[in-house]
Automatic annotation (TrEMBL):
UniProt protein name: Cytochrome P450
Entry annotated with the keyword Oxidoreductase: yes
Source species, domain of life: Eukaryota
GO molecular function, one term: heme binding
PANTHER family: P450, PUTATIVE (EUROFUNG)-RELATED, P450, PUTATIVE (EUROFUNG)-RELATED-RELATED
C-alpha cells in the first residue's frame, strides 16, 4: 500500500516487475524512450530495482521544469560510501549543494585560481625535472615514475 501511494506521485511509465523493475532499453535507448514518451507523455518514470529514474522526453518540458524547479533539481544523489566514508565528506564533486559546498568551493578557488597557480610553478618544474631524470636513469620504469 505504501509503495502504491508513493508511486502515485510519479509520472506514468512502462509497467515494472515487482522485484526487478522496468526493462531498460539496450543500445538504442533513445528510440525506446521516444516511443515511451509518445505512449506515456513527455515526463515518464522508470524503475530498476529500488532506483527510480525520471525521463523528460521533450525539450519544452525540460526547459519548463528547469525554469520552475531549477534550484531544487541542482543537487546530486547522496552517495554515503564515496561522499562521506571514503573521502570524509571533503570531495567537492560529491558534496551536496548548499552552504558546505560553497565553503569548499571558495577554499579551493582561493588556491587554484589562475593568479595563485603562478606560485606553484617552481614546485611543478622541480617535479618535472625529477621525472625526466628518473626516466633517463631507468627508462623501463617510466610508467611507475609518472605515477607519483
Amino acid at each position: 500500500i505504501a509503495q502504491r501511494r508513493a508511486s502515485q506521485h510519479l509520472p506514468p511509465g512502462p509497467p515494472a516487475h515487482w522485484l526487478t523493475g522496468s526493462p531498460l532499453p539496450g543500445p538504442y535507448a533513445h528510440l525506446k524512450w521516444a516511443e515511451w514518451t509518445d505512449l506515456y507523455g513527455p515526463v515518464i518514470s522508470v524503475r530498476k530495482g529500488s532506483q527510480i529514474t525520471v525521463i523528460i522526453g521533450r525539450v519544452k518540458e525540460a526547459v519548463d521544469i528547469m525554469e520552475k524547479e531549477g534550484a531544487s533539481l541542482a543537487d546530486r544523489p547522496k552517495n554515503i560510501a564515496a561522499g562521506e566514508v571514503l573521502s570524509g565528506g571533503m570531495r567537492t564533486l560529491l558534496v551536496p549543494a548548499g552552504t558546505r559546498f560553497r565553503k569548499l568551493r571558495k577554499a579551493l578557488h582561493a588556491r587554484l585560481s589562475q593568479k595563485e597557480s603562478v606560485n606553484y610553478e617552481p614546485i611543478q618544474m622541480e617535479n618535472a625535472r625529477n621525472l625526466v631524470e628518473d626516466i633517463l636513469k631507468n627508462p623501463a620504469g617510466h610508467q611507475e615514475h609518472a605515477k607519483r
